[in-house]
Amino acid sequence: MRSTKSFGAVALALGAGTLLALAPAAAASAHVSASASSTAAGSSSVVTFSVPHGCDGSPTTVVTIEIPESVPAVTPTVNPNWTVEKVIEQLDEPLTDAHGNEITERVTAVAYTTIGAGLADGYRDTFDLSLRLPEGEVGDVVEFPVVQTCAVGTAEWVGEEAPSVTLTAAIEDDGHDAEAPATVATAGGDVLARAFGIGGLVVGTVAVVIAVLSRRSAKA
């Protein structure tokens, strides 16, 4: 019986040790992730960044999302629990966007700062960025490194752990931006219509005058 109890105690200790060893790995795997409404190369997309936990139990206070050079323009979505700030830099050479507008600056990072005590560990929040994905080949990876600052400690999600979007095949122009041809009234047509209208009015007036004169002649 002693040997059985001893074996059970050893097995329990080994099991507990295994769980403790795996716990940090499980926590580390739950990193900041990104999902996109569209992954087509060159398409407009809303990329959602998900923060699922704090830093070793400490609440998250700042989430800084770095924007790659291949994405020159970004529109952050307002989150009511955070303030948001865009970090801007001037471009050495202007770029032209998909609408033909000249771009002289770009967003290098977007920083969300908590309003209050921060995002408690064990709770999740998301941050949306509207942007245009770069042109590229199928399978190209667009990385958005993230720095997660907590009340105590910092987690950097970079390299292989950086949130990313993998490009898929580009979508051809579907024609939604094309304008329907406008109907234009020509000056000649307008003049002709007016002429017919005036002519009709004159004929009607003459007819009334003739009718009145005819009645007077009949009475006489």
Write up what this structure looks like.
It is a single chain. The chain folds into two domains: 1-30; 31-166, Immunoglobulin-like. The relative contact order is 0.17. The strands form three sheets. It has a five-stranded antiparallel beta sheet with strand order 5-6-3-9-10, with no helix packed on it. It has a four-stranded antiparallel beta sheet with strand order 1-2-7-4, with no helix packed on it. Strands 8-11 form a two-stranded antiparallel ribbon. The radius of gyration is 36 Å and the shape is globular. A hairpin with a 5-residue loop joins strand 5 and strand 6. The protein has helices at 2-29, 187-219; strands spanning 33-36, 44-51, 60-66, 74-76, 82-96, 102-114, 125-132, 141-143, 146-150, 154-157, 164-166. Mean pLDDT is 76; it is low at 1-29 and 174-198. It has two helices and eleven strands; from the N terminus they run H-E-E-E-E-E-E-E-E-E-E-E-H. By secondary structure, the protein is α+β, with helices and mostly antiparallel strands.
